[in-house]
Amino acid sequence: MFVKICGITRPADAASAVEANADAIGLNFVASSRRFVDLKAAKAVLAVVPDGVMTVGVFRNHGASEVLEITGRLGLDAAQLHGQESPEVIAEVAAGVSTVIKVFTAGSSEVQLMGEFGADIVMIDAATPGGGVPFDWGLVGDLVERHKILLAGGLRPDNVAAAVRQVRPWGVDVASGVESGDGLKDAAAVARFVTESRSP
Predict the structure, then answer these.
(1) Count of domains in the chain?
(2) CATH number of 33's domain
(3) Residue 171: how many CB atoms within 10 A of its CB?
(4) Which end of the chain has the lower number of beta carbons within 10 A, N or C?
(5) What is the mean predicted confidence (pLDDT) over 61-67?
(6) Exposed/middle/buried for residue 185 (C-beta within 10 Å: 0-12, 13-18, 19+)
């Protein structure tokens, strides 16, 4: 089970994720997000992340050139696109980044068209990303049979095992569900989330 800890804002939190054997960490470059990091803060976080842990930049409606500039300057492994990016933008980003994660809202009409976007990984999220509220996992349906589905939206240490058993996703993603405050991760919660994700 692939596990991503998203919205990392401090080196100590990245270290906690690494120690818990998370597969990936996410850095949020959406200016309006309470988990936003600038390039200086991102570099400090990345300095404690070893090779083998995927580093993901989170973007929303950024231009492809800006996504590529940030991922290139920081040496990020992946770009996660949370906005209304077109298949053309995704293709442009994919030409310069090894992995593209495209986010879709559970139950939206776009979900049925996800194959046209050409993303490497598809994230299914709640209507309010980062809001900490789960959606009806039944909405994922048989998408897991056709795509690498990264399940997000309201996952926590106490519900992620049930989500994994029901949905059978390729991976899971968490931000608010392991926080003690805005953008501040709780090391014990991170460790428990990773363990519970892989327990079913």
Answers:
(1) 1
(2) 3.20.20.70
(3) 20
(4) C
(5) 96
(6) buried
